Amino acid sequence: MHSIRVFGHYMRLPLLLLALVETVLFGAAFILAQHLRFWLMGNEEMTEPLILAGYAIVVALTFMLSMAAMGLYEASAREGLNGLLIRILVSLIFGAALLAALAFIFPGLEFWRSILALTVILSFIAVAGLRMAIYQSRPWLFRRRVLVFGDSELIDEVIDAGADELMIVGVVPVSTDPSPPLSHPEWFVEHDRPLADIALERQADEVLLAVRDRRGAMPMEELLDCRMSGIQVLQPQSFFERELGLVKLDLLNPSWLLHTDGFKHGAMTMFIKRVMDVLTALSFLILFSPVMLLTALAIAVESRFRHPIFYRQVRVGINGFPFEVIKFRSMRMDAESDGRARWATKGDPRITRVGRFIRKTRIDELPQIINVLKGEMSFVGPRPERPEFVADLLQKNFFYAARSRVKPGLTGWAQLRYPYGSSEEDALRKLEYDLYYVKNHSTFLDLLILLQTVEVVLFGKGAV
């Protein structure tokens, strides 16, 4: 099964088709719920067909987006079948609540609660049944068939990276050793005939190169034959980018950056991003002002009105320019009394009781809306780091400077894909995701990250 690129971001074609099918099911469930509601009431009055179709489209798109926000169009079910069903139910309830809120704000919209409740029930039955049927009868349906060609140093690493999403149909080592050291010897295929013949025999969709040093080790004629036979040949760096959404540092070199696609930051894209930032920031400021007021009061009460509510700290912004980030204070006033910068860690004793809660729920980040309105930050982008940490990390990796080519953000690709970092090693691992974002940045990817951030906030992932 193949991936396609949507505005520079890799999306699985089977998952896009699944989203399309489920969107149709949501629309059909709403129309059926409308008929059921009037039938149960013994009322023959119905909404005009064109108006009903319009409502059905709005409901279907809202439910599909809420499913995406819950991570239900990711490549694998991370929490098993039970977790999958819970996420489906939560996403449908969330979507129905959003539609009910719209009907309350705009009284002319006929999203009646009884019809929405029936729509949620019917949608859950249809979608849960579809998902269960797929995962029980055809678990391989959304997996690509991959033939791995490479050396033992990298084979296990790429297999682990794609274990949940790929179907490995064989491993052809570069080494001439008849029994190369593989952790999965059952996949070993002897290179006794052309690669294209092996790939076609095993119905492989693509040949994955797992070779660090390609000098003299690549059978170019055989690989070209694979390509001409319609079998995709994938480089290891592109594989990690597609499967894990990162740019792997130990495979990265300036030559690859020069010749790869991406890194397109056009004026129109930046303008749209800025408009989205301002509109989203103003909406959040209005929507979460009660939460911010209660948080400010809780912090003040905990400190007995003796210490500041807000915390300002210098961070590195776009193109390396410093700025002051604004957050709700979540640590004690003497957290860095010795003047030495420290990484925040899990269970950090410097965090206050209120601070622990607002960090877990990400409420402490809300004052950064002011930084967004001032143009110092964006809603989506790499996490802004302290100058002290940036200076050290630049010494460790030359490519760390690349993340400052875009504005830092309240949320970002690295924050979604990697746990909260508390060390230089974590920062370098997150850099791999930040480089992916800088390379593939688009309005579509920003919207995708904002949707998935809903999942992070609701389930408390990644916070200290």
Mean pLDDT: 83
Q: Identify the strand order in the major beta sheet.
A: 4-3-5-6
- Give the overall shape: globular
| Overall number of structural domains | 3
Number of helices: 17
Strand content: 5-15%
Strand segment count: 10
User: How would you sum up the major sheet?
Assistant: 4 strands, parallel
Spans of 5+ residues with little confidence (pLDDT < 50)?
none
Structural class: alpha/beta
Q: List the secondary-structure elements in sequence, H or E.
A: EEHHHHEHEHEHEHHHHEEHHEHEHHH
Q: Level of helix content? A: 40-55%
How widely separated are the two ends?
Answer: 37 Å
Cα Rg: 25 Å
Keywords: Membrane, Transferase, Transmembrane, Transmembrane helix
Protein name: TIGR03013 family PEP-CTERM/XrtA system glycosyltransferase
Organism: Allochromatium palmeri
Membrane topology: Multi-pass membrane protein
Report a brief summary of the structure.
This protein is an alpha/beta fold.
Protein model, in words:
This protein is α/β, with parallel strands linked by helices. The protein folds into 3 domains: 3-137, no CATH class; 144-244, Nitrogenase molybdenum iron protein domain (Rossmann fold, 3-Layer(aba) Sandwich), CATH 3.40.50.1980; 267-332 and 344-459, no CATH class. It has helices at residues 13-40, 49-69, 80-105, 113-137, 152-161, 195-201, 220-228, 236-244, 254-259, 267-287, 289-302, 353-360, 369-373, 387-396, 413-417, 424-440, 443-459, and strands at 3-6, 9-12, 144-150, 166-173, 206-210, 232-234, 310-316, 322-328, 378-380, 409-411. The chain has a 4-stranded parallel beta sheet with strand order 4-3-5-6. It has a two-stranded antiparallel ribbon with strand order 1-2. A hairpin with a 5-residue loop joins strand 7 and strand 8 (322-328). It is a multi-pass membrane protein.
